[in-house]
Structure formats: C-alpha cells, structure tokens
Write the structure tokens for this entry.
Amino acid sequence: MIPDRDLFGHGPNAQTSVLPGDRRQSVPLSLLEKIRGKSPSMRAIQFLGLLRVPEGKKAGKPLKLANFQKKFVKGAFGKGVTVGVLSIGRGNAKTALSAGLALAELVGALQEDPQPNREIIFAARNRDQARIAFNFVLGYINGLPESDQAQFTIRRGSKLEIEFGGNGGGLARCIAADGKSILGGAPTLAIMDERAAWEREKGDNLENAILSGLGKRDGRALIISTSAPDDTNTFSRWLDEPPPGSYVQEHRPPFGLPADDLESLLLANPGAAEGIGSTPEWLLSAAKTAIARGGAALSSFRNLNRNERVSIENRSVLVTVDEWLSAEVAPEDLPPREGPCILGVDLGGSRSMSAAAFYWPETGRLEALGTFPAFPSLADRGAADAVAHRYVEMHERGELSVMGENTVPPGPWLAEIVRQLDGIQPACIVGDRFRHAEFAEAMNGAGLARVPFIWRGFGWKDGAEDIERFRRALFDGDVKVVPSLLLRFAFADAVTLIDPAGNAKLAKGRALGRIDAAAAAVLAVAQGARMQAAPTRKARAAWA
C-alpha cells in the first residue's frame, strides 16, 4: 500500500504537493514518446504497458495486461463507443485498470492531439472507495521518472485531485456518489467504479449528471463493477439493455452451478489463470468454506467472487439461492405424480399474475404455473417490471400462459389449471381466505365445488406456520422440482417480514416483484406437510 504521504515527501495534512520552485511547462511526459498507436485503444494499451505495478506481489514490475483487460480496452475505446461496461468478479484488478486509464487520459496519452484542460472524474460509492482509486493513480505516478513526477500536483484533504501541467493540462478528481459533486462539469473521461454498489437514488443522480456532462466534449464513460444483486439495479440494466454506443463485457457464469465449480469460477475470474488476483486454488478453497458456512457467506461468495446476481441481504429472504437450487432436479429424476395432489392457488387481481402450484407430498414433486392477462403484452410487462425478456422466456418454456384481456378470469383459469393434471383430481385446494367469494365462484365455474377448500391467511398467524413448514420440507429434501424460471424469479423476490414476536409473513422484496408462484408453492407444500404429519385414523370395529 502507498504510505499516507504524498509523492513529494509532504505529510498527510498537506493540501497541495509540488516540487519547491517548480515552474511546470506544457510539455508531454517522456514516456509518451514511445507510443506509436493511432487509435485510442492501441494508445491506451501501449501506455499501460509502460507503467509499473504500484502494489501487490508484482509491485515495481512493468504492468502487463491480461487478455480480458486488452479485450475490454479495445472494445470500450473502439470507434463509435461512448460507454464501456465491464462486469467481473472481485479481485480481478478492475480498479487498477481503470486507474491506469484515468492516468492515460490525464496526461493526454489517448490521442495524438489531445484536448487541452482535460477533466477526468473517478466516481466511487463513498470517499474511502474513491481514495483506493486515488492511491492507485498515485502509485502509477510514483513509478514515473522524477522529471515527469514534477509535472503533477497532488491535492488531498477535502478534495482528492491530481493536476497535470503538461501536454495541455488536465485535472483528475475522485468523488463519492453524490450527483451534486459534478454539476456543471464537462469530463472527457468518467469512470464509475463498483457501480452496482452505489446507493440507488444518489447513484442514479450522479450517473445522469456524468452522462449529461460527457456530451459537452465528446467524452467517454467506463462503468466497472461486480454483478448487482438483482435485475432491477441500474448496472444490470446497462448489461441487459445496453443503449446504442455501448460496449458490454460480462464475465458471469450460468445460473444454477455449484459454488465450487472450477470452470465457472475461472469464467467469473479470468485474471486467476493469468496471475492476477486470487489463484484458482484459493477460489476453490474459499468456495468450499462458503458452502460449509452457508447462508449469507455463500450468498456473498456467489455475488462477489462468482459474479452472480445473488442478493447478499440474506437476513429476510424466504430462502437463499442455494437453498432453492438444492430442490431442483433433472426432468428424468423428477418423482412421479403419486398419491394425493394438493393445489395451492394465489389468485391475482386486476392486471396481475395468477399462479398455481401442484404438490404431491408422498413423492415431493412440485410443479408451478403462472398466468397473465393478454394486455399489456408479456414483452411490455417485462419491460415495466424491469425483468427484460424473462416473461417471454417463461412463456416459451411453458411455465407462463396468457388468458383473458385485462384480467385473468378466475373460473376458466382454474378449470384450465386442473386440466394440466391430466385427469388427477386434487385432494384439496389451498388459497387466501380474503378472496373467499372469488374462489367460491371460480370453483363453481370450474366444476370443483366438491373439492375441499382450505382457507389460509397471508398474515402473521397462518403465514408464520406455512413459511416454517415450507422451509422445513425444503431443507429436509421433501421438495423436488425441475428448473423453473418462474419459481426462481418468484423466490428471488420473496422476503419475510418479522414481527416483534418473531412471526414471519411473506412479502415482496421490491415493488415490481412477482412472488405469486412462490406464495402458491408455500401454501401447497405447507398443506402437504400438515397432511403427512396428521396421524392415520384407524377404522373402528363394528359389532354385529
């Protein structure tokens, strides 16, 4: 680490550091004479190769870019690209790379005829994180010849700034995620570090302020981060729905793989194979430790080290990703439809989803179906719910259907749901007691008036029992289901609210979340657990 002193020997309280009597002139750095590239990307790669590693195991050695880093630089600084987006696991030198690019722009290395008075913004979630990037830039400067160092002015204190006096001049600022910090700025390069971790409102304000300022001088933005915890995060939107002029490079393994799967670990951490950051052996060891600890430790490892979209806010989720994945089996390993079938139903209101779950407690088989009204379309609804094309994909997989115009008609929908059982009569139907009248009409319309209906509430009383029974069945391996996007996304959005007595009830983790399928599954599995636990009644002997 760089000591808490500036490059010119001043203590930590110094506001400005510059060589005594220095009269800086507008001259380029000596190493710029070695750059022969024409395009900004090639010039950036050549410039970075002339720097020295500032810290770590290879401190003092020439900086050597890994293949994935070269690929990102070429893409982000390509012709017609204004925003470069990189998503990669923690410890793959994201900040070190972006700090080097910030220095390249500061000294005017990216163009043969650079703009004068260049402005670089290095934005991070908070000041401490900004200081890490600031120290990386200082470390690179510290590796330059002393004659070149004399052209830099370092400012600490309330502002973290580096000013360059040569080659037309430039100013680099490290700021926290507060949109007011750069109002009126006109950056030529803006770097948003760990964008997924920014506070939602302030982060979006800062991003909007940065992007609006870039247009003044044909600037470029680099957005670099590990994966966000969900699809609604602004960083996820950059990856999933990049606007024109964007270059996206995402190192994220497929969902559902074991945490210690080495191939996917290296996909999320390409630097490990090239001597950057954690070694493959360390990653495997950390994965096994996270698996053994489970819970928040495993969720955090998946999000930060495997670069998966997994929430690390684990205290109130209904079940974690790994807990749910333990129930998924291949289609050929799914238990048969044997024994009584329980139908759990979450009847949707106007314009919302209706969902049903079938559960066979004797075998543990679980199936789920969801239905939306036809208007708006699944594509438009997915855009409005911030899940992109997920609803269309669920429909193509047969997990989500469309019925009705603006609302799903309860009677015909319930009749269609029962037809999916291929002649199997449900032993009972479980649903919300507050929709009693609608359920009664729907069952009459579907010809199910004689099927027993069990009313359950979604409040603290019934909800706490159903959630606990569902979790116990899941953890005991009594729930088996084929991989289902409908259920994965429902459980990803499902959280529990806890009252002072410790009772839990089901709730949405976000306003646009759809937890209907998760609610139906909880109802069905909990009722199945009650049926399995009920004592078997013996027939009484009849006397002649």
Q: What stands out?
A: The chain has a mean pLDDT of 86. The domain at 331-533 is CATH 3.30.420.240 (Nucleotidyltransferase; domain 5). The radius of gyration is 29 Å. The chain has three domains: 27-250, 262-314, 331-533.
